[in-house]
Amino acid sequence: MENIYLAVTDNTALASSIYVNIALAGITLMLIAFWSRSIQNSRARLITYATMMISVVSISSYMGLASGLTIDSLVMPEGHALAGQETLSLWGRYLTWTLSTPFILLALGLMAGSSGDKIFSAIVLDVFMCLTGLAAALTTSSYAMRWFWYLLSSAFFVGVLYYLLVEWPKEAKAKGTGNIFNTLKLLTVFMWIGYPVIWALGNEGLAMLNVGVTSWGYSILDIIAKYAFTIILVLYVKKEPEAITSLTGMASATVR
Question: Which of 101, 125, 152, 155 has the smallest set of CB atoms within 10 Å of its CB?
């Protein structure tokens, strides 16, 4: 496939799935910038800036996809449903997730009032989850190896789920942010589970979905897991500053 950019623009479903995300990331970024002006507490501002970076990363990475810079045409290995055929790999999405999902976990960890070592551990697991997912997408030497990387990525995901479902809910409840944390936790967990499902069914996995449908599947998950998440969280931080202030006080007491 000689011109990746034309391959994207000629596929209406694929192109629209990318452009919609660029637009929504930009709108979300402007909203957060406007709302954040009234936020004064340092921890609240850190949470807000973390969520703002989600959209910053998304705009940059989706522009890479729109230009064809982070898309390649790969020949699928023997055993794949498209064996011997070229299919588009939007590997730039994995860069998006590697750089944006840590900010989601940082914001959630801060909202739960968790310690730095737990937040760091969750982020490390998350980064390895995304990078091994990238390996699954780019491996063309062996169909079995693609699924090995997929399963390894899923194992790292289980580690991330441990913090989201076990560790942080207890801390959030103890520190008074249990309700908002549970809302964001459920949104995050259900959306993130969707990514490996789309991979398995999409053109990179079992090829039950074509590249355009696969891309839209990822885009819908991104819209909810990133932009809806950001708006819900920042509006809470803006409207409930006392809850964030109490988190700051508890963190200071713990340090002493």
Answer: 155
